[in-house]
Amino acid sequence: MATIQTLHILNKSPDHPRAARCLEMVSEDDGLLLTGGGVLFLATGHLSGPGKVFALSPDIDARGLGEFKGSNAELVDFARMVELSLEANRVISW
Amino acid sequence: MSESMPERNNEGFLEDAFDWTEGVAAVIAAEDEVELTEKHWEIIQFLRSFYKEHEMSPPSNRLFVKAVKEALGEDKGNSIYLMQLFPGTPAKTACRIAGLPRPTNCL
Amino acid sequence: MSTLIMIDQAPYGAWTGREALDMAFSLAAFDQPASLFFTGAGVNWLRQNQEAGGIGQKSVEKNLSAAPIFGIEAILADRAACETYGLDENSLIEGVTLVDADAALLNDYDHTAFAG
Fold first, then answer.
1. C28 and chain B: CB distance < 8 Å anywhere?
2. Identity of the residue in C22, C29, C62 whose CB atom sits nearest the CB atom of B55
3. Fold of B17-98
4. B106 belongs to the catalytic site
5. Over 70: is that where the pLDDT of B2 sits?
6. ipTM of this complex
7. For chain C, does the N or the C end have fewer beta carbons within 10 angstroms?
8. d(CA C40, CA C108)
9. Quick one: pLDDT band at residue B29, thresholds 50, 70, 90?
């Protein structure tokens, strides 16, 4: 797998102003990791931008979003989240 | 004491509600000088199932009384009846014996 | 005096929503009419099958299910916000009334307060 340039960790829900700003910043070689309220983007379906999308599985379960697990995001657990953060050249926590 | 007691906080509430057993209840009740009768067990069982369903303790004494009234009727869901069974602040005493977390709004 | 408590923030991220729920329960404890209104990302409180053990929290879905027992009058949800978050009758918890969020709704209450 190609190295992630910037890993954007988004824990803000879709209605938060910072969420929109984050999505604008994601480019082709970046990763977008949805955690916390950020996983609600799986329900709104507003994720058409570039970059590979990851979502933290326990946060999806907490919010009852199991039916959206098959959507366009790769599911990760806490351990994989740490790995991703270490693999990426840089990390932005939104 | 034959019963090995699970971890508790400084006010005697269980750290984990699922560590609770009837034996644990008896030990905590004895500390409060409460001798458990059928009437006590009815309220304790009610609280256990309330916690399972709602993942919380009734937050205050008033809401404890209200919840008991809703489930078991007016004869039991009144503060005098519950105070006789669980002296002090009934919600606190009953939740402690039933292994539930401390009611958030009880002083 | 009737109170409408508004929750417009997603569950689990912040404590403000739980505090609002606590306030509603306290009003009900003193027999003051209180209802809850979920709008914006707040409607996600109302989704079925929340399993919050993995993030070390209690399920707000289960907490909320105690509302009728404590005497909360109504659980209302903003219809448009539910659509945005993919919530329908099949995925909403029981006992939720869908409403349109407009001034007429607020006219029914003496006091409206936002969480947080």
1. yes
2. C62
3. Arc Repressor Mutant, subunit A (1.10.10)
4. yes
5. no
6. 0.88
7. N
8. 20
9. very high
